[in-house]
Amino acid sequence: MISLRVKIDEASCEGHGRCYALAPALFEPDEIGNASVLGDGIVPAGEEDRARRAVANCPEHAITIDAST
Ligand code: SF4
Roughly how many angstroms between the first and final C-alpha of the chain, as a whole number? Predict the structure, then answer.
């Protein structure tokens, strides 16, 4: 079964917060507002569109999404 996995390039994240606003089941802010992936980054069923919107809306292009087997 192929699922999707999101990753954040933490060096590129500038803490705009769009990802965790758009997809709070996938991302969370740290104490200064930068984002990290929740858990192992596997996108649960039903969260795929939110994951893609987070990728598309990150101003720093810090989020990638890949197929994970
Ligand atoms: S949208 Fe991009 S820059 Fe903003 S917090 Fe998320 S990963 Fe960081």
Answer: 6
Q: Say which CATH number the domain at 30 has.
A: 3.30.70.20
Ligand 1 atom with least separation from CA of 8: 7
Q: Of ligand 1's atoms, which has the minimum distance to the CA of residue 33? A: 5
| pLDDT by residue, tens only, the chain of 69 residues | 789 999 999 999 999 999 999 999 999 999 999 999 999 999 999 999 999 999 999 999 999 999 976
Dist. CA 51 → ligand 1 center (Å):
12
Q: Position 4: which residue type?
A: L
Give the chain's domain count: 1
State in Å: Cα 1 to ligand 1 middle: 28
